[in-house]
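Quick start: read one record
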Amino acid sequence: MSSTGETTLRIGLALGSGSSRGWAHIGVIRALSEVGINPDIVCGCSVGALVGASYVTGRLDKLEEWVSALTKLEFARFFELDLSLKGFIDTERLDGFLAGQVCGENDRIENLTKVYAAVSTDLETGREIWFTQGPVMEAVRASISIPGLFAPFLHEGKWLVDGGLVNPVPVSVCRSLGADIVIAVNLNGDILGKHPKQKDEPAESEGIIDRFTKTLKSYSPALFSGAKPENIPPALLDSIALSLNIMQDRVTRSRMAGDPPDIHLTPKLRHIGLLEAYRGKEAILEGRECVRRMLPEIQYVLE
């Protein structure tokens, strides 16, 4: 039956990648549900896979509560200085978060009440990998493994990384799984042009960047004396963030031009940076507002 109760069309929801901007997906899902739109098929990439998994496993309330209460200090605890440089995320803490707010360790995709899929990337071949069965936890871990922040995820002998490298907004996956109408949530629509700002942060928010800076200062204090010269390159994580922004924007435009969604939602999120997950309330609100702005178009298409 229809998600609106008035048609037999199957509605697919494609939740795009976007790191900390991805909490907007929570607001989008909430706003759609409030007007009677409950998708039959949920496909996600990166943070979209994470939020989508929380939705289809019935844990969206827990995730929204956690996101809304997240502070800078608490988020900083997800990072660790790993001398192997395989990644900066504390995987043990990450797995605990996923098990508590996203999916159970025994949840399997084929047993869910809604059709679900997550997108990842084969690091060796560059091929797009779709998780349409198996443990939900593994699907999410593989899809969110942002290069440079997360260590690649080993699955069936293959090292997998973030699906945003190949399919940032998985419209094609929704259609392949049987969606007649696809609602796509693109978090990359206005990200280019966002530049990192130098600003003072409260002491409690010290995270990975602050610790790197302190370490570098101990080796060369002259690098950090006075104002930052214009010829000093961006910090490591700033470079990663801006590079990912460029890549995701270009790939998103290309993929969606070839397979456009029926409804295209683009929350305005350029003010939220790659590692600003503690701004969840802002992102959720903008997700809701985006649906509100587009509601006449959404209703027109569905009717």
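The chain is about 40% helix and 15% strand.
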